[in-house]
Amino acid sequence: MYIYSFEKLEVWNEAKEFAKSIYLLTSKFPDSEKFGLVSQLRRASVSICSNVAEGSPRKTYKDKAHFTTMAFGSAVEVINQLILSFELNFISEFDYNKLREALESVTNKLNGLRTFQISKATENS
What we know:
By secondary structure, the protein is an all-alpha fold. Helix content is 75%, strand content 0%.
């Protein structure tokens, strides 16, 4: 089976695992949040790894960096939604801190990837 380049990226793997954690966590949210925070958290968390994957086959490093930036934006969106979820008592402090730590690792790697992509784009200009 062919392995795509994004599947080899540590940041993609971490982001994918993070999205799975969000799915498990939000399955415990109140039913009234099914179309609210549950939907928002799931879509934004999936968007992180999806943007990394979508950017990987782009021809230029500038295009790749654009999708990495979009992934970072989705990660920040998730942080906002986690804060709300915690303050509304939908998630425990333990889960909140654990997810924030995991997301910090993902955002640090996204920053590193974007820095690399921008430097390569500048190099190739």
